[in-house]
Design goal:
2 domains, elongated, 41% helix, alpha/beta, D-Maltodextrin-Binding Protein, domain 2, 18% strand, six-stranded mixed beta sheet, five-stranded mixed beta sheet
């Protein structure tokens, strides 16, 4: 009798024990290695856990391609990625949109020397214009689209060259190129690096689509809803945690946006087409 009572008590205690939190794995496409991921998103990890009631596990990926593979194999549940990467990930993994991460002052610019010969977009015809890596939304795709919107065709009306921002600024100062493509933050950095040189912007693109958090296509709707609700109800706390990361300062002043559709990224698809890429089943560069 005593033994049976003890067994019943044990069963009762087990039934009263709290269930373990569901574990959700989170990756970022432009951060390699666990150490860097923890430095940038360790605070976010804790904040999202508190807000959602889920256990958030950081999952490093070595590339955008490995992020797609991890989504399709179920190794990772959430991926934070940029707009240029998203349209390819959408094609290859069909993920669910969770929430957009707004980046204030996220737009492309074409800069020239303020006292140089280029005074308008028309002056760039037949000239060299520098861009960053082809996969960059704000320093290649966006600037190319901005020029296209003003009537200059990529690789026809001007010659695109690939250079890092500071190297491009030096080339611009020497007169080797006519203009450089930068986003708002990069132009500020270039001006800081070359304080004795005056730069001017001759073209500015529209605000670019935001970075976006996606979930693997078969992640439970209930789990996705918990995560989305956490961003809605505790967005201020989560953003404060995000901003603990040095590289995450690009999100300062931004918000988490839940009214997001895949069609919001059609502008990115038009950018790819502008540079001659008509399919989205592989990452450029």
């Amino acid at each position: 009798m005593i033994r049976s009572l003890l067994g019943a008590c044990a069963i009762s205690l087990v039934s009263l024990a709290p269930a373990a939190a569901e574990s959700v794995k989170f990756a970022v496409t432009d951060i390699e290695g666990m150490e860097a991921l923890q430095q940038e998103f360790g605070g976010f990890q804790k904040a999202l856990e508190q807000a959602s009631g889920l256990e958030i596990e950081l999952f490093p990926v070595s590339s955008r391609t490995s992020a797609v593979e991890a989504l399709n194999s179920g190794q990772v549940d959430l991926v934070l990625t940029g707009p240029a990467e998203y349209v390819v990930i959408k094609e290859l993994a069909q993920p669910q949109i969770v929430v957009a991460w707004q980046r204030p002052d996220y737009f492309a610019q074409i800069a020239v020397l303020a006292n140089g010969p280029i005074r308008s977009i028309e002056d760039l015809k037949g000239k060299k214009v520098s861009f960053s890596s082809v996969g960059s939304t704000s320093q290649h795709l966006g600037p190319a689209q901005a020029l296209s919107d003003f009537g200059l065709k990529y690789n026809e009306d001007y010659e695109p060259v690939i250079l890092a921002s500071n190297v491009a600024a030096e080339a611009l100062i020497r007169g080797d190129i006519a203009a450089i493509s930068l986003n708002f933050g990069n132009l500020a950095s270039v001006r800081e690096a070359f304080p004795d040189v005056a730069f001017a912007v001759v073209a500015r693109g529209r605000d670019l689509p935001n970075d976006i958090l996606v979930a693997r296509k078969d992640l439970a709707e209930e789990t996705v809803a918990k995560i989305r609700t956490a961003f809605v109800e505790k967005g201020t706390d989560i953003m404060a945690a995000v901003l603990q990361g040095e590289d995450n300062q690009k999100f300062k002043g931004g918000f988490f946006l839940t009214d997001v559709k895949d069609s919001d990224y059609d502008y990115v698809r038009s950018m790819y087409r502008t540079i001659g890429v008509d399919t989205f089943n592989d990452f450029v560069n």
